[in-house]
Design goal:
Helix content: 25-40%
CATH architecture: Alpha-Beta Barrel
Largest sheet: 8 strands, parallel
InterPro entries: AKR, Aldo/ket_reductase_CS, NAD(P)_OxRdtase_dom_sf, NADP_OxRdtase_dom
Order of helices and strands: EEEHEHEHEHEHEHEHHEHH
CATH topology: TIM Barrel
Protein name: NADP-dependent oxidoreductase domain-containing protein
Site (Lowers pKa of active site Tyr): 80
Distance between the termini: 41 Å
Shape: globular
Radius of gyration: 18 Å
CATH class: Alpha Beta
Number of helices: 10
Strand order of the largest sheet: 3-4-5-6-7-8-9-10
Family: Belongs to the aldo/keto reductase family.
CATH superfamily: NADP-dependent oxidoreductase domain
Bound molecules: NADP nicotinamide-adenine-dinucleotide phosphate
Structural class: alpha/beta
Domain NADP-dependent oxidoreductase: 28-265
């Protein structure tokens, strides 16, 4: 039996919160398309949606969840604050605005999108997210694109440490081994963004050979690779067929030797399509 199922949950550290092992990304899903894409994803069995202030579709994600008729507590919704700031009121207000736009009462996970504007702003913005947890507006909080230095620095100011999640770019060409090892050691759940490398590697011969061997698509191999690395992948698609295809990854297992072959494709920071973290 292959490991993992579509309904698997990952427990977040020091909380009662459980996060579905497969997520659905909505970056570059235009508002007019996003509702339908999320509805399709929910129909296909995804229960974890990843939006952000930056994506300008928080409202549509909330709308789709409401329209789906699926009980709120069965769906895990993440958003992210884009601008860190040293102004506590501004940080808190912009975060609350996101929760209100989504309109589901609370979010399951609120992330700081990037380490951005220096330590002072990171500290104040984290304080605002901690306040959301205290007030029940966010069930868990975390960071994105944070390196080891950023997370270590938090020990000096955080009431909630470790952050529950670090969302970073991860796929065979950008494995970020230092930060993933650090997160694992410190019990921080790892989410993988750009798990499909935006389809830029669809013609890569190694990937094509594995797709051929397992009789799967290159996208399915890449998402399955994330699962077997114990990363939570967030594939994005606005296409019905591809949304289903990307969730159909639980019926096979990549052999250890082939995981090693994919591991061998790592190019470090050079392999990133968005960014690799800065660890120190
Ligand atoms: N925290 C951050 O800084 C950060 C940065 C980037 C992304 N993210 C999150 O991670 C999610 C995923 O990353 P991403 O959207 O940048 O890239 P991705 O999921 O690696 O790739 C999405 C692209 O691949 C295409 N695609 C999807 N399924 C496919 C398939 N089965 N076959 C061929 N092509 C396929 C999509 O086109 P179609 O839509 O036409 O299918 C889209 O162009 C985002 O949506 C967002 O939620 C976070």
């Amino acid at each position: 039996m292959p490991k993992f199922t579509l309904t698997d949950l990952v427990a977040l550290p020091n909380t009662l919160v459980k996060m579905p092992r497969l997520g659905f990304g909505v970056y570059q899903s235009p508002p007019e398309t996003c509702i339908q894409s999320v509805l399709t994803a929910l129909k296909a069995g995804y229960r974890h949606i990843d939006t952000a202030q930056y994506y300008t579709n928080e409202r549509e994600v909330g709308e789709a969840v409401r329209r789906s008729g699926i009980p709120r507590e069965e769906i895990f919704v993440t958003t992210k604050i884009i601008r860190t700031t040293e102004n506590p009121d501004r940080a808190y207000e912009t975060a609350v605005k996101s929760v209100e736009k989504i309109g589901l009462g609370y979010v399951d996970l609120f992330l700081i999108h990037t380490p951005g504007r220096g330590k002072g702003a990171r500290k104040v913005t984290w304080g605002a997210l901690e306040r959301l947890v205290e007030e029940g507006k966010a069930r868990s909080i975390g960071v994105s694109n944070y390196g080891i230095g950023h997370i270590e620095e938090m020990k000096g100011y955080a009431k909630i440490w470790p952050p529950h999640v670090n969302q970073i770019e991860l796929h065979p060409w950008c494995q970020q081994r230092e930060i993933t090892t650090y997160c694992r050691t410190n019990n921080i759940a790892i989410q993988a963004y750009c798990p499909l490398v935006r389809n830029y590697k669809a013609k890569d011969p190694t990937l094509l050979a594995l797709a051929d061997k397992y009789e799967r698509t290159t996208a399915q191999i890449l998402i399955r690779y994330c699962l077997q690395k114990e990363w939570v992948p967030l594939p994005k698609s606005d296409n019905e067929g591809r949304i289903y295809e990307n969730a159909n990854i639980f019926g096979f297992e990549i052999e250890d030797g082939d995981m090693g072959v994919l591991d061998g494709l790592d190019q470090g920071a050079r392999g990133a399509v968005v960014m690799a973290v800065i660890n120190r």
